[in-house]
Design a protein that fits this description.
The complex is a heterotrimer. Chain B is of the alpha+beta class. Chain B contains 3 helices and 5 strands. Classes of the chains: A alpha+beta, B alpha+beta, C alpha/beta.
C-alpha cells in the first residue's frame, strides 16, 4: 500500500499556534510523523546580546505569555548568581507565590484546551472561568494578568500588602474546591476517559530516552521536578509532593496536572501564611561580573534552562534559552505513532505546547520570485503600504 | 473507577440562575487594580534630566533630547514618548530618581492616526546629580 | 534561616565531589579540568574534541547521566565552544547539572554527534547546526530546524558574532527600487 502523507498544520493542529506535522498514515493509523517548527522564530537570543540585563528581563518575559514568570525568574536567578546577590527572603516568597499561581492558571488553561480538543466544551468554559480567579490574584499582586513584570534583579518589584492576604486566601480556597471538583469529574466522566485513556502512550524508558520534561515525564512515571531536585527560590522550605502517574497516557498527564494544581494551592497557602517580613529586594548594580551560569526552573510545562554568559559589561555575551515545550517534541512525535488521525490534536495538546517557547531565535523569510529575502518590519510596513495603495480600493470595491 | 456520563450537568444547570461571568465590555468595565500599568504620565517640573528612563527602556519608547542651555542656567529638554512602542513595564517609573513618571490606569490607547502615538513636550530644568535609590512598591 | 542554608551550600558538595573524583580518575588525561561553582552544578572541560564522545559515554554508562537538558553553542572569538547541559536524575536535592564543554576550531566546526548515545539531543544538535554551523557528524537528519528550509546556503549562521543582519542591505535595495520606480 502506498504511503500517504498528510500535512497537519501549520494552522491550528491543536492550539492556535503554528507548527506543522507531516504525518504518514496507513489507513487511519499513523505510522510516522515529522515536524517543522520554524514558524514563529523571533531572534530573541540574538537580540538579547544587544540589550542590558535590566532590559532583557522584559524581553525574556515576552518569550511566552502563559509562562512569562518562568522566563524572568529563570533569567534573573542566573544573573543574581553571577552578581552574588542574596535575595531577601520575602522577595523569594513573593516570587514563588506568583510562580505557583501561574502554574495554576497555566494548568487550568491546559485543562480547558484539552477539554476543547476532546469535544467537551463544558469543561473548557468552566475551567477558563475559574482560571480568572488565579488571574485576578495575579493582577492584584503584580498589576497585570499576564507579563507580570514583578521580577527584577535582586528581588521583586511589588510587595504584598496586609489587606491582600485575606483576598488571596479566599480565592485560593475557592480554587482548591474547584480543582478538586475537576479532578473527581475528569477521572470519572466517560467523555474524558474514552478519549484520553490509553491514547498517546509514552512508556517510561522512551520518555527517558527522548528526555521528556515536566508533566509529560511525570505522567510516564519519571519522578523529575526541578523544584525537588534542584530547589530554587523558596521551594526548599515548602512542603509539597511530587506527583507522578504510571499510566503513561494522556489521562495520566491530565491527572498529574490536576493534582499538581492541588499541590500548588497548598503551596500558595503555605507561602501566604509563612510570609516573612523584611525587604523585598536587594540593591543591585548595573554591571555584571564576568562569568557563566546555568539556571534551571520548573515551568508549568517542565524544566526550563537558561545559560547566561557575561563578559563584565552591561550586556550579556550569550543568553541561551531552552524552554520546556522544545524538550518534549521528540516525545510527541514518538507518541503519535500507532494512533488515529483524530487523536493528533489531543496528543499534541497533551504536552501543553507553546510554539513561541519552542522557536525563539531569528528571522522571517519568504520567496519572492527567485530571490531570497529577509523581511524586516520596515520592509513589511513599506510593502504593506504600497500594496494597499495599489490594491486597496479594488479590494474594497469588490 | 466509576464511569459516569454527563457529570457536569448539575453544575451547568445550577448556573442557569447565576450572574453571568463576563462583562459587556465597551458599556461595562471591570475595575482595574491600583497597580495596573497603563499609559505614562509625566511631571516635567520634577525631571532632573538624568535620562535613566531612556537608558532603561527595553523598547526605545522614550527619547530625551538635550536642547542646549537656557539663559537662566537651566537645560532645555525635549521628551518624546512613543505609546506605540511602550511595553508598559514601568521600569522607567521605577528607575526615575525624581519620581517624575507615573503610570496611569489608561489602557484604551488605540488610534487610527499614527501621529497621535507620539507625545512630545519641551521643558527646562536644572540638572542635579543624585544617588540612585532602590524603591519599593508602586 | 538564610545563614543556615549558606552553610549547607558550601559544606555539602559530596555528590559533586564524588562525580569529579570518578571523572578525573577514570578519564584522566581526556579531561582538562572540572569545576564546581556551587551545589548541583558542574562544568567539565574536555581537552580535545576527539575524546569528547568518550566523556559523554562515560557519564552515561557509569554515572547514569542520561538527560540532555540543552546544548548551547558559543562563539568565543577564534573558536566555538559547545556546552552540553546534561542532568542526572536523582532523589530530592540530588540532581546534578553537568555541563560538558568542548572547544572547536572555527575553520573546522565538526563534532561527533551524541544522538546514538542520547537520542534526546536530536533537536538541540540541529539547532546548533542552524545557528552556528556546528556540524554534528553522524546526525541522522540535518535539515534546518528553526531557520527556513532554504536558509543555510546564503544566509549564514545568525548566532555567530560576525553575522550581521541584512536589514541595512535590504533597506538600500528597497530605496533604489523605489527611486527607479518613481
Amino acid at each position: 500500500m502506498p504511503k500517504v502523507t498528510i500535512p497537519v498544520g501549520p494552522q491550528h493542529p491543536a492550539l492556535k499556534e503554528p507548527i506543522n506535522f507531516m504525518v504518514s498514515v496507513d489507513g487511519e493509523t499513523i505510522v510516522d510523523a515529522d515536524m517543522n517548527l520554524a514558524y514563529s522564530h523571533r531572534g530573541i537570543e540574538k537580540l538579547a546580546e544587544s540589550k542590558t540585563y535590566l532590559q532583557n528581563i522584559y524581553l525574556v518575559e515576552r518569550i511566552c505569555g502563559i509562562c512569562s514568570h518562568t522566563h524572568t525568574t529563570c533569567f534573573v536567578q542566573g544573573v543574581e548568581e553571577l552578581m552574588g546577590i542574596e535575595v531577601p527572603e520575602r522577595g523569594l516568597y513573593i516570587r514563588t507565590l506568583v510562580a505557583e499561581l501561574e502554574r495554576i492558571h497555566s494548568h487550568l488553561l491546559w485543562t480547558g484546551v484539552a477539554g476543547h480538543e476532546i469535544g467537551f466544551d463544558t469543561l473548557f468554559m468552566y475551567t477558563w472561568r475559574d482560571r480568572e480567579l488565579a488571574l485576578d490574584l495575579l493582577e492584584m499582586i503584580t498589576g497585570n494578568r499576564v507579563n507580570y513584570g514583578i521580577n527584577t534583579i535582586g528581588g521583586v518589584r511589588r510587595n504584598i500588602k496586609a489587606g491582600m492576604k485575606d483576598q488571596i486566601l479566599k480565592h485560593i480556597g475557592k480554587l482548591e474546591e474547584r480543582v478538586q471538583y475537576y479532578t473527581d469529574m475528569a477521572t470519572t466522566e466517560s467523555t474524558v476517559l474514552l478519549r484520553a485513556e490509553g491514547v498517546g502512550h509514552l512508556p517510561e524508558n522512551e520518555a527517558r530516552k527522548f528526555c521528556a520534561v515536566g508533566p509529560t515525564a511525570r505522567a510516564s512515571n519519571i519522578p523529575t521536578d526541578v523544584r525537588k531536585e534542584d530547589p530554587y527560590a523558596a521551594y526548599e522550605e515548602l512542603d509539597f509532593e511530587l506527583i507522578t502517574s504510571d499510566s503513561c497516557d494522556i489521562l495520566g498527564r491530565l491527572i498529574v496536572r490536576m493534582q499538581e494544581m492541588v499541590e500548588s494551592c497548598k503551596m500558595a497557602r503555605q507561602l501566604i501564611e509563612n510570609l516573612p517580613s523584611g525587604p523585598i529586594r536587594a540593591p543591585m548594580s548595573r554591571e555584571v561580573p564576568a562569568g557563566e551560569v546555568v539556571s534551571r526552573y520548573e515551568a508549568p510545562r517542565g524544566e526550563c534552562l537558561y545559560y547566561v554568559k557575561s563578559n563584565g559589561t552591561f550586556y550579556p555575551e550569550r543568553l541561551k534559552v531552552r524552554a520546556s515545550t522544545y524538550a518534549n517534541w521528540p516525545a510527541v512525535v514518538y507518541s503519535l505513532k500507532g494512533y488515529y488521525i483524530a487523536d493528533i490534536p489531543l496528543i499534541i495538546a497533551a504536552i501543553d505546547p507553546c510554539m513561541s517557547c519552542t522557536s525563539r531565535v531569528a528571522i522571517l523569510d519568504t520567496k519572492d520570485g527567485n530571490e531570497r529575502k529577509v523581511l524586516d518590519m520596515d520592509y513589511l510596513r513599506t510593502y504593506g503600504i504600497k500594496w494597499y495603495k495599489e490594491h486597496g480600493r479594488g479590494v474594497r470595491r469588490r | 473507577m466509576v464511569r459516569t456520563i454527563g457529570s457536569m450537568f448539575p453544575e451547568a444547570f445550577r448556573h442557569l440562575w447565576k450572574k453571568r461571568a463576563t462583562v459587556l465590555y465597551p458599556f461595562e468595565k471591570l475595575e482595574l487594580t491600583y497597580r495596573y500599568r497603563g499609559k505614562l504620565e509625566f511631571f516635567d517640573e520634577r525631571c532632573k534630566g538624568c535620562k535613566v528612563c531612556e537608558e532603561d527602556c527595553p523598547s526605545f519608547a522614550m527619547e530625551i533630547k538635550d536642547e542646549g542651555k537656557e539663559q537662566d542656567g537651566k537645560t532645555k529638554f525635549r521628551r518624546i514618548y512613543h505609546t506605540d512602542r511602550c511595553l508598559f513595564c514601568g521600569q522607567c517609573a521605577e528607575s526615575c530618581m525624581s519620581e517624575s513618571i507615573i503610570l496611569t490606569k489608561e489602557f484604551e490607547l488605540a488610534e487610527s492616526d499614527k501621529e497621535k502615538f507620539t507625545i512630545e513636550s519641551t521643558y527646562s530644568t536644572e540638572i542635579i546629580a543624585k544617588e540612585r535609590e532602590v524603591k519599593e512598591d508602586g | 534561616m538564610r545563614e543556615m542554608e549558606i552553610e549547607t551550600e558550601t559544606g555539602n558538595l559530596e555528590k559533586e565531589e564524588r562525580i569529579k573524583a570518578e571523572v578525573v580518575g577514570k578519564l584522566g588525561d581526556k579531561v582538562e579540568k572540572v569545576e564546581i561553582p556551587r551545589e548541583r552544578r558542574m562544568f567539565i572541560y574536555v581537552k580535545r574534541k576527539e575524546s569528547f564522545k568518550d566523556v559523554v559515554k562515560f557519564l552515561k554508562d557509569w554515572l547514569g547521566i542520561i538527560h540532555v537538558s540543552a546544548i548551547t553553542g558559543l562563539d568565543v572569538g577564534d573558536k566555538f565552544e559547545v556546552l552540553y547541559h546534561l542532568f542526572s536524575y536523582g532523589k530530592e536535592k540530588e540532581g546534578v547539572e553537568v555541563t560538558v564543554k568542548v572547544s572547536l576550531p572555527k575553520t573546522d566546526p565538526k563534532i561527533d554527534s551524541i544522538v546514538d548515545l542520547l537520542p534526546g539531543a536530536v533537536l538541540y544538535e540541529r539547532e546548533n547546526h542552524d545557528m552556528f554551523g556546528i556540524v554534528p557528524e553522524g546526525h541522522p537528519d540535518l535539515r534546518p530546524l528553526l531557520l527556513p528550509d532554504d536558509w543555510a546556503e546564503t544566509g549564514g549562521h545568525p548566532l555567530r558574532k560576525d553575522w550581521v543582519e541584512e536589514k541595512e542591505k535590504e533597506k538600500e535595495k528597497e530605496k533604489e527600487k523605489e527611486g527607479r520606480g518613481e
